[in-house]
Amino acid sequence: MDQDNLDMQCEELTGARWKELVPSLNKYKTIRLADCSLSSSSCADIASVLTTSQVLTVLKLNTNELGDSGVELLCKGLMSPSCNLQTLWLEFCEFSAASTEALCSALRTKSSLKALNLNYNKLKDRAVKHLCQALLDANCKLQSLQLESCGITAAGCGDLSALLSAMPSLTELSLGENKIGDAGVAVLCQGLLNPNCKIEKLRLWECAISPAGCKDLSNVINTKETLQVLSVVGNDFKDQGMEFLCQALKDPKTKLQSLWLRDCGLTAACCKSVGSIFSTNVFLKELHIGSNQLEDAGMAYLCEGLMNPNCQLQSLWVGNAELTAACCDQLAAVLVTNQHLEELELCNNWLENEGVLKLCEAVRNPNCKLKMFMLYDIFWTSEVDDELKALAESKPGLEVIY
C-alpha cells in the first residue's frame, strides 16, 4: 500500500475496523475497497470523504452490498463542489433502477467524472434510458461507460445509440452479457456509425449475436476508424459470421488493433479468411481466437498468414482450439520467421511432449522475438518441465507461463 493509494480486497471492514480506517480516507488519491463487506451504512462515511477530499480521483467499491440507499448516499457526496472524482466503480453492488434518479443527478453535476462502471447491477432498460438522458447533459464529459450484465435488451439499445450519436467524449462502451441480440446490435450500430461517435473500445461479449448481426458489425469495423478494440466473445457467429468480419478487416479504412473472438462457434473453415487478414491488415496487433474448433487444419491457415512479410500481429491467443503436435512444425517456423509476434498463448491443447519441445527449440532461436509464451493445461512429462525452465533461464526477456 503506497502513500497515495489504498487498495484492500476481501477484508471485512466492519465495526471497529471500519471506524479505525475512516479518518485516513481523506488522504488518498485512489481508494479500492473490493469485497470488503461494506454496506449502505458505510456509504455515509465514504460520502463524507467525497464532500471534503479534493485529492480523491478514483473510487472502486466493487462487490459490496451497498444497495440503493448506499448508492444514493454516495451520489450526494459526488454532487459536492469539492469532489473531483474521475473514476467510480460500483460493480456487483446490489443496487437497482430505484437509485437511478440519484445517479442521474450526480452525472449532470459532476463534469470531472470520466469513467463509470455499473456492471452486474439490475438496472434494466428503463434505468438505462434515464442514465443516457443524464449523460447527454452538457456538463457530462464521461469517456468510459460499463454496463455489463445489467438486464439490457434490444429495447434499451435505442437510447444507447442516441447517446453514441451525441456524445463524442464517450470512447469506451461495455455491454457484455446483455441479451440485446441482432435487433439490438442493428440499432446500436446506427449510433456507432454516426460521425459524432468517437468510440475506441467496444465490448459486446455474450450478447446473443448471430451471423446476421455480424453484417452490421462489419459495417462499423470498416467505417469507424476510431475503433481500436472489439470484444465479441461468446457470440454464436459461426464461420458465416466470421466471413463478414474478415471482409471488413481487409478494408484499408479499418484501424482495429485488438479483436476478441473466443467461443464464437468457429471452425477451420473460416481460418483461411482469417489468415489472409494478416497479409493485408497492418493495424491488427492482437487476436484472441481460442475456445473455437480450429484444429490443426485451421492453425495451418493461420500460420500461412503469420508467415507473410506484411503481417504485423504481435499477440495471438489460440488456447483450447483442439490443436495437436501436428501443427507445431508450422508454428515453429512462424516463431523463427515472424519478427513482430511477441505473445503466443497455446493453453489447453494436445501438444504433448513432441509439440512443446519443437516449439521450445524455435523459441530458443535468436531470431524469435517472443516475450510471452503461455502453455498451461497441457499434458507433458518432466523432460518438458526441465526444458521450459532452461528456456526461461536462457532468454531473460522471455516470460514462460506454464
Helix content: 25-40%
Based on secondary structure, the structural category is: alpha/beta
Q: Using DSSP, what is the number of strands?
A: 15
Largest sheet: 15 strands, parallel
Give the name of the CATH superfamily of the domain at 1-115: Ribonuclease Inhibitor
What is the typical, i.e. mean, pLDDT?
Answer: 97
Element string (H = helix, E = strand): EHEHEHEHEHEHEHEHEHEHEHEHEHEHE
Shape: globular
Strand content: 5-15%
CATH C-level class of the domain at 1-115: Alpha Beta
Rg on CA atoms, Å:
24 Å
Q: Detail the poorly predicted runs.
A: none
Q: How many angstroms does the end-to-end distance come to?
A: 29 Å
The CATH architecture name of the domain at 1-115 reads Alpha-Beta Horseshoe
Q: How many alpha or pi helices?
A: 14
Care to give the gist of this entry?
With 402 residues, this protein is of the alpha/beta class. It contains 14 helices and 15 strands. α6 links the parallel β6 and β7.
